[in-house]
């Protein structure tokens, strides 16, 4: 969708640094060259602390591995995203009809991408407990990513105190459930320079000003 509107996607391109003019970020250095920008937004999930450090920022973020898997195609349309706070489990259906499932984060912070059979067995048991029809499906593939956890389990969005450098991070395990509206709000901030009312409570300075949010149960998978 974004590419049809003129967005340029640089695949297999690593960010190696930020370009600064005085105290302002004015672009990014990548493995394929430099890109100038009036505004740079960090939306890199579990790797946000490394990128923020390039701007001279230290963020209150911990990185944890998060595993997931998908099953074969399920013929019926399954519209909702279902999450259980008691089972610490979620499931949704992909555009190809596969059932996507995940559970809680690995408790030990790390950048490990190793997937484990114990997770697969535990998560499959939760799946059939919550949705018995899933016992007839077959697991196709499993993988691990890293997610970004804030101290109050809520996202951090908006300006950072470094001119030209914005962040959207701390989404933890519920980013893909909530990020569509988050993306719209960040786009409004970029276009106007003014923080939208909806995301104002999620500013980075809430930690310094003792305005943390109590939202740990929102994802159901912490």
TrEMBL record:
The keyword Oxidoreductase applies. Gene3D superfamilies: D-Amino Acid Oxidase, subunit A, domain 2, FAD/NAD(P)-binding domain. It is an enzyme of class 1 (oxidoreductase). InterPro entries: FAD-dep_OxRdtase, FAD/NAD-bd_sf. Residues 4-189 form the FAD dependent oxidoreductase domain. The lineage of its organism: unclassified sequences, metagenomes, ecological metagenomes. Pfam families: DAO. GO terms for cellular component: cytoplasm. It comes from hydrothermal vent metagenome. Its EC number is 1.5.3.1. Keywords: Oxidoreductase. GO terms for molecular function: sarcosine oxidase activity. This is Sarcosine oxidase beta subunit.
């Amino acid at each position: 969708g974004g590419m049809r509107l003129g967005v340029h996607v640089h695949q297999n391109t690593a960010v190696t640094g930020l370009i600064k003019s005085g105290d302002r970020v004015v672009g990014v250095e990548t493995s394929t060259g430099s890109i100038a920008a009036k505004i740079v937004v960090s939306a890199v999930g579990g790797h946000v602390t490394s990128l923020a450090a390039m701007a001279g920022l230290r963020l209150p973020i911990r990185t944890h591995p998060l595993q997931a898997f998908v099953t074969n195609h399920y013929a019926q349309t399954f519209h909702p995203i279902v999450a259980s706070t008691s089972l610490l489990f979620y499931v949704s259906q992909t555009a190809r009809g596969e059932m996507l499932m995940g559970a809680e984060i690995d408790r030990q912070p790390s950048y490990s991408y190793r997937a484990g059979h114990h997770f697969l067995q535990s998560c499959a048991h939760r799946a059939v407990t919550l949705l018995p029809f899933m016992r007839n499906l077959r697991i196709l593939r499993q993988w691990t990513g890293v997610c970004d956890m804030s101290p109050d389990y809520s996202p951090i969005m908006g300006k950072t105190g470094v001119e030209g450098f914005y962040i959207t991070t701390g989404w933890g395990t519920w980013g893909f459930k909530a990020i569509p509206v988050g993306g719209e709000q960040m786009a409004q901030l970029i276009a106007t320079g003014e923080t939208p009312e909806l995301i104002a409570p999620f500013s980075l300075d809430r930690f310094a000003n003792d305005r943390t949010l109590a939202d740990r149960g929102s994802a159901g998978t912490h």
